Amino acid sequence: MITTMTLQLVVLALGITSMLLLIVAALPPPPPLPPASSCTDELVLFSPCLPYVLSPPNNLSNTASVSCCDAFSSALNSNNGVCLCYLVRQPSILRFPVNNTRVLSFSSVCPIGEDTTVP
């Protein structure tokens, strides 16, 4: 037998579910990342950074090289600078484990020239 309290709880649960669905539907979608295939060239240019960004035991350097920082600056200035996000969001894209902390540290370990702008 359904009691009044049970019926009230069902109605309340349906109301809350409806409100949550409306809130989620109203949120703007996140900006899409370019397809991984369009980032291949960008990530190949980023190869001087591999000794720094790979996880142990593959990390061969504790500092980012000049050529790595140049690749980072170039990525920021290109239309595909967002491709670096793949190293954080999809670390398996290189088929090697990536140290996300080091990828995210580029802006502090690599000097960025005055003409560098983030797209």
UniProtKB/TrEMBL annotation:
Q: Which residues form a coiled coil?
A: none
Leader sequence range is 1-26
Q: Does the keyword Signal apply?
A: yes
Q: Which Gene3D superfamilies match?
A: Plant lipid-transfer and hydrophobic proteins (1.10.110.10)
Query: Residue limits of the Bifunctional inhibitor/plant lipid transfer protein/seed storage helical domain?
Result: 21-113
Q: Which domain of life is it from?
A: Eukaryota
Query: Could you confirm whether the keyword S-adenosyl-L-methionine appears in this record?
Result: no
Annotated keywords: Signal
Q: This chain belongs to which protein, by name?
A: Bifunctional inhibitor/plant lipid transfer protein/seed storage helical domain-containing protein
